[in-house]
Design goal:
2 copies of one chain form a homodimer. Chain A is of the alpha+beta class. Chain A is built from 11 helices and 12 strands. Chain A folds into 2 domains: 127 residues, 60s Ribosomal Protein L30, Chain: A; 176 residues, PurM-like C-terminal domain (Phosphoribosyl-aminoimidazole Synthetase, Chain A, domain 2, Alpha-Beta Complex), CATH 3.90.650. In chain A, the strands form 2 sheets. Chain A has a 6-stranded mixed β-sheet. Chain A has a 6-stranded mixed β-sheet with strand order 8-10-7-11-9-12, sandwiched between helices. Chains A and B meet through α1, β3, β4, α3 and β5 of A and α1, β3, β4, α3 and β5 of B.
């Protein structure tokens, strides 16, 4: 239910937010009039509006389910490396499972291809199955047809009862954390789109972060007992954090300078640096909230996973999911600067 | 895992059969090297190659899962009625559940649209939710984006342990049955494609069978304890029966004149009549096998559901899924006639 940063083609994203809300309303209206499921049946624990839907089976298990569709020209450039595409198509779905604290189980693949190109298929399936094998996530079904290059994956994972990391669980005063570093994928995309120019060396360093994101599955599993809420960063940290805050009916204070960024991004001009880190998408890191007393355990988890986990702010009272950006001295950032950042986030939401 | 009859555009279907087998091999290779799932986890009971995949949860339940992708110009004509499309996109997936004897539970929808057209969306979602409500099947998630009109649905249903109707269960000497009547959808498609002309009245009678197929969910549930194997007819009776026979390592004798057809189709010239009935696709009826001693119970089920169930043949020994067509006197059909029929089936497989 997340998708990589959209290329600037076709209709605006706000239109498609409208469409999503359209189907959400239909689904809710139907749920309200539906017959009550019996105890024998699997029931829907969580519908549209989180990283995954949750299905309660009649055992102790909950299944987490998510769907993403990637189109050529919209989510990736024509002629994109097929092996990377195979990786990324599955990675963005695995990332949704990670954000729910779910263990990968299986996926289906619907694939439309302009022609049966065996070289392309070899490369695509290599990237796909390498990642699938790494996370023990099995291809269980699919559909192939001829058409404009399109891949739609539905992924299924498993969480125990009451273990799922929902967006709505954050509490007032919780720390806000982010994994890894953010902004490199956006830096690479901007360079490819000639929004800015960076050195060949810098591009070589950040391109893998755009093309071969690492889904944070182990982190999601480790956070089951630690985090109060989580979301994966597909649209950009500010935008995705806002989804979490809205679901939790909270606001946030965020220290801009605390955002973890790579040395490559740190070398860029300030406006690019913070636009990429705060508002860039496609990172597939996890942003999560946790009570302050979990800090030591989270530090241990970070060491266990050899994955930086950085505290970047805390939740506040706000009915509008307001995010206040502060500097390292705790002072509110210049209003224009904040507005610039939020504009750029809105553009890529 | 079934799709409506493809329009004659783009690459040939045999190429895409190749692709499917490609991913199937990758999935099998991965399964062979995968770590053994623990008892606590949901496990994969059946992977690629049936109407649905089956997931064994840690309760008594098995989940049936299927994916289909529909593209404009490939599976439906540009400008197709949006409400019918909403119906059909879900119906073809429900039909996969029916063929497994599964009870519908939930689905995800990935939708690419050229533009945010509210009239189209209203109509599409009306058709979609009407059918979803009828079968108590809930939209639990999805993804929307701009792009060539494409809809990909993944559906999830529920079957009890050892209740799923697999393709591989047919026994030697079992009766072969088919529900409803077959061939009307193909008659309509051929008329729209000007392969033949039929009267306006005839077209009006068969068009709903093409655009608004009825998934045979109740039949699938009723057959759980009666049928030995089942498949839904999406590619054509002969082609789909052959899938079932291949999975069961059997052949079949089929009485062509026994195929249940509508009065409209019965009025067509013989070659059209039998091509549509035996080799046409898009019917979404169920073809199933059952032991002879189940005949009375199947007749009762037919009456209960007010749905004709017709015995059209029986299974035989064959290592090549051979289907022998006979006339009403039990005589083998003329070889040329059979070849003609089988060629037309191959064309639309």
């Amino acid at each position: 239910m997340t998708a990589p940063a959209k290329l600037p083609l076709g209709s605006s994203l706000s239109e498609f937010a409208l469409i999503e809300s359209y189907f959400k309303q239909g689904a809710l209206a139907m749920a309200q009039t539906a017959r009550v499921a019996t105890n024998e049946l699997t029931t829907i624990a969580l519908g549209i509006g989180d990283d995954c839907a949750l299905l309660q089976t009649n055992g102790s298990e909950i299944l987490a389910i998510s769907t993403d569709m990637l189109l050529e020209g919209r989510h990736f450039l024509p002629g994109a490396n097929a092996q990377w595409l195979g990786h990324k198509a599955l990675a963005v779905n695995l990332s949704d499972l990670a954000a729910m604290g779910a263990k990968p189980l299986a996926f289906t693949l619907a694939l439309a291809l302009p022609a049966s190109d065996t070289v392309w298929l070899n490369n695509f399936s290599t990237g796909l199955f390498q990642l699938a094998t790494q996370f023990n996530c099995h291809l269980i079904g699919g559909d192939t047809t001829s058409g404009p290059l399109t891949m739609s994956i539905t992924i299924i994972g498993s969480v125990g009862n009451h273990q799922a990391l929902r967006r709505a669980g954050a509490k007032l005063g919780d720390d806000i954390w982010v994994s890894g570093c953010v902004g490199d994928a956006r830096l690479a995309l901007g360079a490819l789109r000639k929004e800015w120019s960076i050195s060949d060396l810098a591009l070589a360093e950040v391109l893998p972060r755009m093309h071969l994101p690492t889904p944070r599955i182990d982190l999601g599993l480790g956070l089951r007992s630690l985090a109060s809420a989580a979301i994966d960063i597909s649209d950009g940290l500010l935008g995705d954090l806002r989804h979490l805050l809205r679901a939790s009916h909270l606001g946030a204070v965020l220290e801009l300078a605390a955002l973890p960024i790579s040395a490559t991004l740190a070398n860029q001009p300030e406006i690019i640096r913070w636009q990429c880190a705060a508002a860039g998408g496609d990172d597939y890191e996890l942003c999560f909230t946790a009570a302050a007393e979990k800090r030591d355990q989270i530090t241990v988890l970070s060491q266990t996973l050899s994955l930086p986990l950085t505290r970047i702010g805390y939740t506040t009272i706000s009915t509008e999911a307001k995010i206040e950006l502060i500097d390292s001295q705790g002072q509110a950032l210049d209003a224009n600067k904040t507005a610039n950042l939020l504009r750029s986030f809105d553009h890529f939401d």
